[in-house]
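Predicting holo structure, S-adenosylmethionine bound.
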Amino acid sequence: MRAFVVTVGSDEVELASDVLWQLGVRAIEERRQPGALDLVELWTAVGDEPDATVRAKQRLGDRWPIRVVDVADDSADTWREFARPMWVDDGLVVVPAWQDHVFDEGVVAIAIEPGGAFGLGDHPTTLLSLRAARRHLGVGRTVLDVGCGTGVIAIMAAKLGGSSVRAVDVASAAVEATSDNAIRNGVADRIVADTTPAADLDGTHHLVVANILAPTLVELADDLRRLTAPDGRLVISGILADRHDHVVAALAPMVVEHTDVLDGWAAVTLGHPR
Ligand SMILES: C[S@@+](CC[C@H](N)C(=O)[O-])C[C@H]1O[C@@H](n2cnc3c(N)ncnc32)[C@H](O)[C@@H]1O
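Done. Tokens:
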């Protein structure tokens, strides 16, 4: 297992952590060096694939020094002990796949094992995306999850009646995790996951969800608009509550129908103009 270490000024911890969370990391440990109190090391994991490290470095840019350190597998996995079920609402919960929980009858539980993919599915933007997407799910709906990560959104869509769900991600580890989690949750017959770029996807979907960093959403805007059915909805997250006008502008003429906010993050639901 490899640790991804970003050294930042103590006044930039929050900013750098936000970017790392959006890359989908599971946990970030802050380490201070005794001789350099104005510097903080953020220790995390972005996945062991060389591509994942390259992409994370590109996203962080050259603003902060980054190094990759080999660490023992067991120490890298301590976050698993602290993982907890995440309630999306009263009837829907995301559960770490390695834990045993019993829920009341009627509760829909989604078991997630991140594997080599980023994120457990408990980031505020994931929760916002799940809640916003849920409003537009139903029997027979077709759904596209762009940047599927662990597959948690795609799996919710399939469990709540989606007839066909397409999940794509640039990271092959994410596609593998999504496929494994689809099997684990008994919905593999309705989810197709692969690394097809959004630009190469055809057709339209009742619901398109993309929880990805704002610069990527801007890059993908034309495709996200094209892939949303005329009467469909697009849910975007991964954007800051007070700084996402440029992303909405890139999606014009789509119009904002709803904005949900949690912990400084937003999820915006858009539709085509009537
Ligand atoms: C913040 S994670 C979201 C994961 C999951 N959808 C969730 O909500 O928990 C963003 C994901 O987008 C993927 N990603 C980044 N750029 C992408 C692109 N251009 N096309 C498809 N996926 C992308 C990343 O590999 C990562 O898995």
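The longest strand covers residues 228-240.
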